[in-house]
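Need residues for this backbone.
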């Protein structure tokens, strides 16, 4: 089965998510957003799909790298294709990003799963068919009744527990919110949530990412008193030595790196340096499902968990195949938005959750997305 074509369809869909001036998502008035569907077609007609921001899989990237490397290759030689694309990154002047590599590799896995009529998580190992989810909030805001005060975080946390979540992760305030960053406000929000949900709900925080060592140490010490499950990405991740210092000085588990480049290679360095207690990786950040699996296997070799970053089909595929990931990140969540309503281009959610906070792995072949092809066709903006 050889790859015949690689194409991108850009379409519009309604959303109530807007981005602030720093790129963080918040609720807003409904508007039309653009999404790209990447399609890999094999010579027997089998197709694989993934969804990406249009700018990540723009025509230059598709023509210069994806088609040049992939067309004519045996589709089942997935690792060979991935290695050749990864090799091209060096000479691409940063045009072929980890995210672009990740999205095309996801579509390739989807193609293989659809061909074999099997979910990708089973092809990868099939460790489990359900996983507990944590509710991952949006960043703090200045919307009354939203996530603008510690008390509003606490109220929303109670709502999430009533929905079935057994764990909650706070994304706290970041610029352009007027008082952000503010270590004391982060701690107040964490304390308010702990008081609201009691001692039996696992709590985590993923706050401002550029705190100093002393600010991060202060927050971490307070989190220890509140019995938080982990402390995520509080400093610049390019400074691995800062994380090694923080991990040495705190008992709360430090989790990372999330946004750092370098795929599985940089994660190996973090383990060697003792810079984290829990490893972090996601398909969109490390170049695909396969390198995320490599990170998870690396972590397991050192007796560590690897918490997979972000929601969606690719994250579920990895989590369904490994033992050393405790949670699935479900979100981003906000009091003003209904996460359980699928996007217009999908017939159903990829991650439905029951009243006990458990997400079932998809049973459909491939990545399991229930794609509304008719909607996409009717709302197509461009096709390359």
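Answer:
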């Amino acid at each position: 089965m050889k790859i015949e074509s690689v194409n991108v369809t850009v379409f519009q869909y309604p959303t109530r998510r807007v981005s602030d001036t720093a790129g963080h998502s918040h609720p807003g008035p409904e508007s039309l957003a653009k999404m790209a569907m990447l399609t890999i077609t094999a010579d027997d007609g089998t197709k694989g799909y993934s969804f990406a921001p249009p700018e990540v899989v723009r025509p230059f990237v598709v023509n210069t790298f994806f088609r040049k490397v992939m067309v004519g290759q045996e589709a089942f030689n997935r690792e060979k294709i991935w290695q050749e694309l990864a090799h091209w990154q060096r000479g691409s002047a940063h045009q072929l990003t980890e995210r672009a590599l990740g999205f095309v590799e996801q579509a390739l896995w989807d193609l293989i799963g659809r061909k074999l009529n099997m979910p990708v998580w089973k092809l990868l190992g099939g460790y489990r068919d359900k996983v507990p989810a944590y509710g991952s909030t949006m960043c703090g805001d200045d919307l009354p009744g939203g996530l603008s005060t510690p008390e509003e975080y606490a109220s929303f946390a109670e709502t999430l527990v009533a929905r079935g979540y057994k764990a909650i992760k706070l994304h706290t305030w970041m610029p352009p919110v007027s008082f952000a960053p503010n270590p004391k406000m982060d701690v107040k929000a964490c304390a308010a949530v702990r008081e609201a949900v009691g001692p039996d709900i696992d709590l985590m925080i993923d706050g401002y990412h550029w705190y100093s060592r002393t600010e991060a140490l202060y927050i971490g010490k307070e989190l220890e008193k509140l019995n938080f499950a982990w402390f995520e990405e509080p400093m610049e991740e390019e400074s691995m030595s800062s994380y090694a210092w923080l991990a040495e000085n705190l008992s709360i588990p430090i989790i990372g790196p999330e946004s750092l480049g370098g795929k599985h290679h940089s994660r190996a360095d973090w383990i060697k340096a003792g810079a984290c207690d829990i490893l972090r990786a996601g398909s969109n950040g490390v170049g695909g499902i396969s390198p995320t699996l490599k990170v998870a296997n690396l972590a397991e070799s050192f007796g560590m968990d690897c918490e997979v970053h972000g929601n969606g089909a690719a994250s579920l595929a990895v989590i369904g195949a490994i033992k050393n990931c405790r949670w699935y990140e479900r979100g981003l969540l906000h009091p003003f938005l209904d996460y359980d309503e699928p996007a217009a281009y999908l017939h159903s959610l990829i991650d439905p959750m029951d009243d006990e906070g458990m997400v079932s792995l998809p049973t459909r072949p491939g990545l399991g997305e229930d794609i509304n092809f008719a909607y996409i066709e009717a709302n197509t903006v461009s096709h390359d």
